[in-house]
Design the sequence.
């Protein structure tokens, strides 16, 4: 039985621990290490040459796609993506036939993904490299950074400068763009819109909210690991524990 050398990459320690436990329960898997950021992941892949990479997509700074783009074809291991992307974004993975785990996932779903990885590793095909490259290229094409957002207001098309946006709020099939005293509706998912904005400035803090870091004035503890993000406009945006580490990666330790 061939031993599969696996590397776990996720910016959230609890998520890394969960994946590690699931991998270590498998007799044919050896976890060679963990990485908590994109740059660490690149170094770890080059140092350990893993057969399998369980890779978080959404990480501050350098995300999962950035990690793969930085690796040469001969360095790319088998990849299982772990992602909190919404249903709309899942289509990209499905189109390019790359396996993914939608957080939160259970042991059964994890084993399905792992069995597929086993089969691909056993086949020795380089098809995965081509699929991953196509996915990375598609994501990069779709994620062209915006400096203005087109909104409709009273039958008119308006361009709202990204610099003027305070925060974004998911509203069903729309996103409410909060810009000063004005609100605009954009037909998009929150995740899809945030990926089009500068990643060093716009950060998800909740499944239904993202903030412009330039507008953050205060982080107020709310108990149980939750925070309230206070903006310079006076707006109060909830931040859940799930997204706290993402903001920590940009702003530093929150305690």
Sequence:
């Amino acid at each position: 039985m061939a031993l599969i050398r696996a590397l776990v990459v996720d910016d959230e320690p609890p998520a890394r621990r969960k994946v590690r436990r699931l991998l270590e329960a498998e007799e044919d898997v050896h976890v060679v290490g963990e990485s908590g950021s994109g740059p660490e992941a690149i170094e770890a892949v080059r140092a350990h040459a893993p057969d399998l990479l369980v890779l978080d997509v959404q990480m501050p700074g350098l995300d999962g796609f950035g990690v793969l783009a930085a690796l040469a074809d001969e360095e790319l291991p088998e990849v299982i993506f772990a992602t909190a992307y919404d249903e709309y974004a899942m289509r990209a993975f499905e189109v390019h036939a790359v396996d993914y785990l939608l957080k939160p996932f259970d042991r059964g779903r994890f084993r399905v993904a792992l069995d597929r990885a086993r089969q691909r590793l056993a086949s020795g095909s380089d098809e995965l490299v081509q699929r991953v490259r196509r996915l990375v290229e598609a994501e990069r094409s779709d994620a062209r950074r915006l400096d203005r957002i087109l909104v409709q207001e009273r039958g008119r098309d308006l361009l709202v400068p990204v610099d003027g946006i305070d925060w974004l709020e998911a509203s069903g099939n729309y996103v409410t763009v909060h810009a000063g005293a004005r609100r605009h509706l954009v037909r998009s998912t929150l995740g899809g819109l945030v990926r089009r904005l500068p990643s060093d400035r716009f950060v998800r803090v909740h499944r239904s909210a993202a903030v412009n870091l330039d507008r953050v004035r205060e982080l107020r503890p709310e108990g149980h690991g939750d925070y309230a993000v206070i903006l310079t406009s006076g707006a109060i945006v909830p931040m859940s524990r799930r997204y706290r580490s993402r903001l920590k990666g940009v702003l530093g330790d929150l305690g």
About this structure: Residues 148-251 form a domain with the OB fold (Dihydrolipoamide Acetyltransferase, E2P) fold (CATH 2.40.50.1020). The first helix runs from residue 13 to 24.
